[in-house]
Design goal:
The complex is a heterodimer. Chain A is mainly alpha-helical. Chain A has helices at 2-16, 20-42, 45-61, 72-91, 113-125, 128-139, 144-151, 155-180. The radius of gyration of chain A is 18 Å and the shape is globular. Chain B is rod-shaped, with a radius of gyration of 57 Å. Chain B starts with 6 loop residues before the first helix and ends with a helix. The relative contact order of chain B is 0.04. The chains are: A mainly alpha, B mainly alpha.
Chain lengths: 182, 201
């Protein structure tokens, strides 16, 4: 992890000196993670791809504003978080974020179809703030401090959202888990 | 049922956020605390269930700087290096010199030698100064030539008027001479008639 952070920092240093290829490497490293984060928030692969494009464009334009090059990941996810919420405000000002998640309900390969569908449905039913906390922690593997940086909230708030969400998910998925493990 | 005071540590342990030095103590506590043991099992089961949803492959690569088309071309780099300013200065200078030649073809202006190795700002400044000097010289020469032509025209006009004046005086002199002769002859005729008719009475 430290080695990777140093590598990102080196690339950012190169980008700041005008090496566009350095940014290209950064994009190739982070694009899948950013895309999947946005996909789980927005539900639409097309919107997630478009916003991913915007996220990296903004990252490139503002790369000099990144104070700590070793923290490129949380920084670019912070941009993605802002873009996602800006997207919802523009597209659906009258509807809440919780009504917008339309991720394709496809069964994950190798698992019981009802389990993967139940997981997706349970995630959909979470409050968007709670869902985002789960996505950042469980699927993206960020530390609590990094999540706080991305979401612009205190660590205690981030933890509270995450544990509340996991408690809800546990209650929803417990019966399915039992069936799926039979 | 009261919540175990170490439940927060157990949660941090479940997500790998606990420092290495505290992990052993938490593991010991969980082994003896049913509540924390259930919490840990629940978290591990739930996260395991969530992780069955795999990440999706990105439909297409982010088409930003990964494409060569976004990189500046050699021409753009050359332009971006400040040659546009220099080229613009050269065009303006050439235009000014050309205008000076067109206005007064006789004038010859020595073109300023370009200093290629100088910084672009110095070159531009030198070029502007040389052009300004050349234009000033051309204007001065044109004004001097105009003054010379005007002086010559004035002198010619004065000569012409003086000649005409002399010719007029000569003509008047001739007329006066003629009138004097005419007056003399008339006077003589009158005297002879008077003498002839006066002597017959």
């Amino acid at each position: 992890m430290i080695f990777r952070a140093v590598e990102d920092a080196d690339l950012i240093s190169r980008v700041r000196k005008g090496d566009i290829e350095g940014f290209n490497i950064l994009v190739s490293r982070w694009e899948k993670r950013v895309f999947n984060y946005l996909l789980r928030l927005l539900g639409s692969p097309d919107d997630a791809l478009d916003l991913s494009q915007d996220v990296f464009l903004k990252a490139y334009q503002n790369i000099r504003k990144l104070d700590d090059p070793a923290r490129f990941g949380p920084w670019v996810f912070r941009i993605a978080h802002n873009e996602a919420y800006s997207f919802f405000r523009k597209r659906r000002p009258e509807t809440a974020l919780e009504d917008t998640n339309v991720i394709e309900r496809r069964a994950a390969p190798g698992f019981a179809p009802d389990l993967s569908l139940a997981v997706t449905a349970a995630l959909d039913r979470l409050h968007p703030d709670q869902r985002e906390a789960v996505v950042l922690k469980v699927y993206q593997g960020f530390k609590f401090e990094e999540m706080a940086e991305i979401l612009g909230s205190p660590v205690s708030t981030v933890k509270s959202r995450l544990y509340t969400a996991l408690e809800l998910l546990k209650n929803e998925l417990a019966p399915v888990n039992i069936r799926g493990t039979r | 049922m009261s919540v175990c005071e170490r439940i927060e540590e157990v949660r941090d342990y479940a997500f790998g956020e606990l420092p290495e030095g505290k992990r052993g103590a938490v593991e010991e506590h969980v082994a003896g605390c049913a509540q924390c043991s259930a919490e840990l099992d629940g978290l591990q089961l739930t996260t395991a269930a969530l992780r069955i949803l795999p990440d999706q492959e990105i439909p297409q690569r982010i088409a930003f700087v990964s494409d060569k088309v976004f990189a500046p071309s050699g021409f753009s780099k050359w332009f971006g290096a400040g040659w546009l300013n220099f080229a613009s200065a050269c065009v303006v200078a050439a235009g000014l010199v050309g205008a000076a030649f067109a206005y007064r073809p006789v004038v010859t202006i020595a073109a300023p030698a370009p200093v290629v190795t100088a910084a672009k700002m110095d070159v531009t400044a030198q070029m502007n100064e040389a052009v300004t000097q050349a234009v000033d010289q051309a204007v001065a020469r044109i004004r001097a030539e105009d003054a010379r032509v005007m002086d010559a025209a004035l002198a010619a006009s004065e000569l012409k008027h003086e000649k005409q004046h002399r010719e007029l005086l000569a003509a008047m002199d001739e007329n006066l001479t003629y009138l004097q002769k005419r007056y003399s002859s008339v006077t003589m005729l009158a005297s002879s008639d008077a003498m002839r008719f006066g002597g017959g009475q």
